[in-house]
């Protein structure tokens, strides 16, 4: 059992997430199934302290098994257990008692753990360490280390505690991380641009750029260091680059997400900027965070690791890590199980290769062999088919583009055999469909992941090598679904393809209809989100990203470049009857041309148009409606005031409404002079509208009161008449008259 030491503990002042830490203590005391807890919660501290995805920061690192390790600032023990499983002995230090208790309750089963509570700077240890871990700690050194140079002082203390060949591992945000330029708040201050502005008026925390980190380590007389670049950051990395790959490999997954701690803005396309920085050879300086391996003195031993990708936000049986490393001067790809069940999952890849390695002379699966905890595959230096297709787009070679796609499609059709799907439990489990699908051409015992990024092309030998054949099933899979996956994932991942094709046109290259595509999307959702991922708890914690580019452009420019056109019959509009057309503007004069004949193909009885020129308050004058039939069309607006031909729109939804469009009109043009109005004038206009509305309401109330008075007086007069003596004298005559009428 672990040992918990309190001899250095003095008070409980320190970093805290508040009362939620008492809840965390209760959780770790009463359950070990943290995912079950996270699936019912959505608070950041819960996810940060309990999620197994935290292990990605160091699970890949090749620790020496017989080593000693000092973890400083262990928090609630998210990584302590991992270190206990990696090395011979762990000494863990935590400042606050409540967090230390959470760590102890969570990891007390490890008999190679000594846990200390208190200020690290006041502690003494009996020996030195092979490894020291600073995971999200160095940036806070100024808050617990005295002196004018707290970071230098703290690192000097750390260096003294390392053995001669000891290694310091630092995980920290990059002050110049690209996400901070693109609207993400600084992780520690929760404010925009704190780090970029060099932390003005902030003295308790700071992070460092790559050069600043190197300068700090040089000042501390450390030896060689190696930078790793975790993405999206070191807290929950899904991939990790090195200096050998950060400026050579493309990202194959989204990097611009909101993360789990804060909502964020997005000011530009982060993936495109990352490609630009890669081409410039400087992407390492703008990584969102670093993991730095630092030798106390001398040079580091080369681990051979060039790249790591984590695929463990899935069901346990599918949790793996992919590592590209150098072996005997050549790169290989290791796929390692991150759970016991995943070992069986990876062994299926080896069996599949043995059964299919001679299937085709042109399309071959990457050679594979079993290793401890997984499999090892050949690494190819060739371009992927996806890269070659993107090159075709860049040089405008549409013929070569379609030709290369057809090669894959024709290969997939080669061995197709017709199957039915009635009551196939395997198919239903993976793809979720329970319908009795008709017989269709299929492949059996096949890999489904033939996406173009998984196919490497040896152009000189005219060979294609398939990697990542992880998803293999023994039941029949429709060939069209395999083709659809190839096309669909390429199209949604490469914006450039949209310059040539709509999605419908692109899928037509594989003879995929819209109805088939809709069905396949349902299958794919079930496969990815239900069968593979199993609705991971982490999905509950993903925050929002807000694209502010359109609103910023509207703020900086006069108007949008397109206008919205609503069309229908007698003002019956729907989301399907809205189109956007160019808004042509020159020297305050605008012109909007509407192809009414084209719109009439969708709504044959079209007689009403609503033209929304822009989406902002403005002033429009000299409005003209011109048709190709020279008809005089009347219009009205939702302007607050129309005076002397000037329409003042106080809100962000100006409308020009034309409700007498005849069946003869083919082309219609709306033009006029448009000018921005200042925010002050917009506010004054809206205030005037409110005042005017109040006046109108008051007038209506007065009019209502007048008529109400007239009504009450009439009722009173009628009452007096009906109760008067003359009226009562005529009542017998009236009854006799009614009887005569009935006869």
Give an account of the 3D structure.
The chain is of the alpha+beta class and 743 residues long. It has four domains: 314 residues, Vaccinia Virus protein VP39 (Rossmann fold); 153 residues; 121 residues, Immunoglobulin-like (Sandwich), CATH 2.60.40; 42 residues. It is 33% helix and 24% strand. It has a 14-stranded mixed β-sheet with strand order 1-4-3-2-5-6-10-7-8-11-12-13-16-15, sandwiched between helices. It has a six-stranded antiparallel β-sheet with strand order 28-29-36-31-34-33. Strands 27-26-30-35-32 form a five-stranded antiparallel β-sheet, with no helix packed on it. Helix 5 links the parallel strand 3 and strand 4. The protein is globular, with a radius of gyration of 36 Å. The N and C termini lie far apart (111 Å). The mean pLDDT is 88.
